[in-house]
Amino acid sequence: MHLRRGITFLTASALVLASCGGGGSQGGQNGSGNAVVPTPTPTPPPSGRLFAPPAQEALSVSEVQTIIAQAVNEAQTRGLPSMIAVTDRVGNVLAVFAMNGANPEAVVSRNRIGAPLPQGDMLGLQGVAVPSQVAAIAKAVTGAYLSSGGNAFTTRTASMIVQEHFPPAPTTVGLESGPLFGVQFSQLPCSDLSARASDGLIGPKRSPLGLSADPGGIPLYKNGVVVGGIGVMGDGNYGFDANILDTENDAEEAIAVAGAQGFMAPTDIRADRIFVDGTSLRFSDVTEAQIAPSSGNFAAISGTAGMLLAVEGYNTGVLRAGTAYGSEASGMRAATPAEFSNPDAFVLSDGAGNARYPIRGGTDAASVAQPLSAGEVRAIMEEAFAVLSRARAQIRRPLDSRMQASISVVDTHGEVLGIVRSPDGPIFGVDVSLQKARTATFFSSAVAAPQLQAVPAPPGGLSGADYVTRVRSFLGDPNALTGTFAFADRSGGNLSRPYFPDGEVGQIPGPLSVLASDTFSPFAVGLQTDLVVPNIVDHVVYVASNGANADTQRGCTKVPNSPSGSPRIANGIQIFPGSVPIYRAGELIGGIGVSGDGIDQDDMVSFLGLNNAGVRLGTLGNADPAIRADRIVVNVNGRGVRLRYINCPFAPFLDTAAQNVCQGL
């Protein structure tokens, strides 16, 4: 994750994580009328470690009932019957409650930069009707997945950081795109990484619509530990907040805040305590002071105000307790020494004691002269984790906390060779780090163009061949996307913005973005959307039909399978920074992706970790500077604009004041 903007969000500027105070006692008020929830004193790391794993907290059945009852009470007060979903931290759906009279359907917003999408048309996900319970689950997952013990983000926060300008407002036209531009298309229902209900309680679970930008999703905490999220869908419009300058009294958000009473994030780690270039992020426009006195009596509302709802692929209609993150059952736990040598590392597990993605060598011997060995993969991940452990966090409170994130390594077929994470990195970063690793590898490969050219156009969208033609015309290179240049995610992100250069209105859109800038919305971004819209629609139909229709496959996109048997980008692509391709003697052999903190931090861990592994081993490393995408200069109305490759932060480490740590590498 990143919360920085500057020359572009894809280059350097300083993120200011400014403190606005905090503390106080439970039940107090801050200046906004919000109840002040104190931050527990951080637990010191165990001896010999740099990180303290979060306590294994979880919601009980009775607590889930209380959350639902409190939300229903507010919904009744506001006259908005709603769908209410509660998840645990790893995405298990603990309950969905359908209030009597709740709108059974929500329509994905038609709003965009220009005039709204006409009724009856579809572009990306715009105009798609989805079951309301699907939207509520996506909101709950978003609140849980974007948050950690050091930061608490909501769907309103997500809305602020995924749009074409940051901050989004009528007066900010011309500023660069949101720092997490594109993250909404992660955790997809077709992801080969994200678990399904049929896999048991292990996470991270998929989200039916990816991450949500529609206010009404709030993280849930116990004793300062994030334990899940609540999502509310009631107004029939699955949208986003295009104007951050006003303050909304949003009923869905109010219902979610009411449900979260007693489980609110500590005040000092909420998004409104995190500043980006002097702009405070938003946590919620609704304060606790605006919430009606609530009752947590579930028996009083169950069967009278509504009922628990079974949701195909997510919940059988039975209340259940949450799974404690960090336990074997959650699918995300501390690594054993044999799995990863660093004692701070966490891995994904299958719930039965086995790592889901044990470190291994490359599977692509049919495609490269010398695939990555298991020892090389281990060295890359160890060096990247060492950089991560020294890095100063950009989104975590208190100030000068250590960075926390997830790291993925893949081969040229997109096969996972290893995933490792720090103990309290936001959960969303697992899937995103893999998306990033695969995306950088795919776009740097000799097969990117021919594989994209085989992808058909979705309804209202463009084919893969259309995007290849646009890239080649845009770059003035008839051989683009055939392995002649190395593309980091920062490079592909440049080409995916609705304005190129990023934020400069009146210029042409990037060739991987929508055809015209005024047709952009967070639900229709270009290639990233067109690759996965058929999968998302198939899944929505599956849920709506209660399983009568087939679910989407495990493995996103219509990109042809690699020789290993699955798509090279089997959980979709990602278009914000934090990855680099891996080379041996000028040959592409894989990629590394990092996600969970600032995008400059993510860039640094991937780039510097790979560099350090190359120094240690002498057998591999980063792309030769002569073929990196920042050697490409695009002619924009007679002006040369250079693509970006990576950007490392200033004074990034806690143990040294060193500057320019990536320069010259």
Automatic annotation (TrEMBL):
Chain residue ranges for the region called Disordered: 23-49
Alphabetized UniProt keyword annotations: Signal
Signal sequence, renumbered to the chain: 1-18
Superkingdom, natural source: Bacteria
InterPro entries, per the entry: GlcG_carb_metab_protein, PduO/GlcC-like, PduO/GlcC-like_sf
PROSITE patterns: PROKAR_LIPOPROTEIN
Listed PANTHER family: PROTEIN GLCG, SLR1406 PROTEIN
UniProt name for this protein: Heme-binding protein
